[in-house]
Design brief:
Layout: H1 3-33, E1 37-39, E2 44-46, H2 52-56, H3 62-94, H4 97-108, H5 115-126, H6 131-138, H7 153-177, H8 181-189, H9 194-205, H10 207-222, H11 226-231, H12 239-248, H13 252-277, H14 280-283
Antiparallel strand pairs: 1-2
Helix pairs in contact: 1-13, 3-7, 3-10, 5-7, 7-10, 8-9, 10-13, 12-13
């Protein structure tokens, strides 16, 4: 082994060890402990391999909460892509350098405040006496406030989209930056109109960014709780809230089993997306 290989291995060893210690090992502990049993005597789990925790997911509507969470994550991710793709196009292709920096800054400024404050601000917009209802009443379009604007799935989706839209937009901007302008110009020279060029050239070339943005938003929504608790009302629930409720009664195997199910869904998405769209192309040095 020559000195170059030793240097490369030495440089890669520390980050690899950190990834294994901080990422992979805790996840493996969650998966293994999800098959253990709860010991009411010691108030802890014991290595008694069992599927009881997974069977308990089917009880008390827990599976419904998981499906509802995945549905919210899917809808939010798709809406973020529908908004984020044209936003990324405008930032990269239409705005000048200075304006694009301003637009990127505007997308990141809301993250200088907490999730709690951002979610609560939507109450002031969607509430019975909020901005939207006030404007509609003053315009004579309605005669009483719209109750469904707040404490509903609509309010939750609005809050989630507002919170996670930049996580879909930034990967799209990155993927568009990797598109060779010569390719787009060649499509125009061959007679492709604007919409044809977008559909047949730019969109396929940005599929890695599309999936990366979808995955980022999907994963973050699946693990969120603030927007649901602040905007969904007392009866609203999501996986993270359900896990907290289960942890309060010290049913750790069930909480870990729920986490493992969600982890399996996300991991499956990563594998399927990478096989179909090639996420490595988004961050690699090769052609887009």
């Amino acid at each position: 082994m020559n000195r170059t290989l030793l240097s490369t291995f030495g440089l890669a060893a520390l980050p690899l060890a950190a990834i294994l210690a901080l990422g992979f090992v805790p996840l493996m502990v969650v998966v293994v402990w999800s098959f253990w049993s709860w010991d009411p005597v010691t108030y802890w789990i014991r290595p008694d391999m069992s599927l009881a925790a997974y069977a308990a997911i089917l009880e008390a509507g827990r599976w419904t909460v998981i499906l509802s969470t995945l549905a919210k994550a899917l809808v939010t991710a798709l809406i973020c892509l529908l908004i984020g793709w044209p936003t990324a196009y405008a930032v990269h292709f239409l705005a000048g350098r200075r304006l694009s920096l301003v637009l990127l800054a505007l997308m990141t400024i809301p993250f200088f405040t907490s999730y709690l404050i951002r979610s609560f601000s939507w109450r002031l917009v969607l509430g019975r006496t909020g901005v939207i209802n006030t404007l509609l009443i003053e315009a004579g379009l309605i005669d009483r406030p719209l109750d469904w604007l707040l404490f509903s799935n609509f309010a939750v989706i609005v809050g989630l989209v507002a919170s996670y839209l930049p996580f879909a937009t930034f990967p799209l901007i990155l993927s568009m930056r990797r598109v060779d302008p010569v390719t787009m110009q060649a499509a125009r020279d061959l007679g492709a109109g604007f919409w044809t060029m977008l559909r047949t050239v730019l969109l396929p070339l940005t599929f890695p960014g599309v999936f990366a943005g979808f995955l980022f938003v999907f994963v973050m929504v699946a693990g969120s709780s603030t927007e649901v608790q602040m905007l969904g009302g007392a009866g609203a629930s999501i996986v993270s809230v359900m896990i907290n409720d289960v942890m309060r009664v010290a049913n750790y195997p069930l909480a870990l089993a729920i986490s493992t199910v969600v982890l399996a869904v996300v991991f499956g998405l990563v594998l399927a997306g990478n096989a179909r769209f090639g996420l490595a192309r988004l961050f690699g040095e090769g052609d887009a």
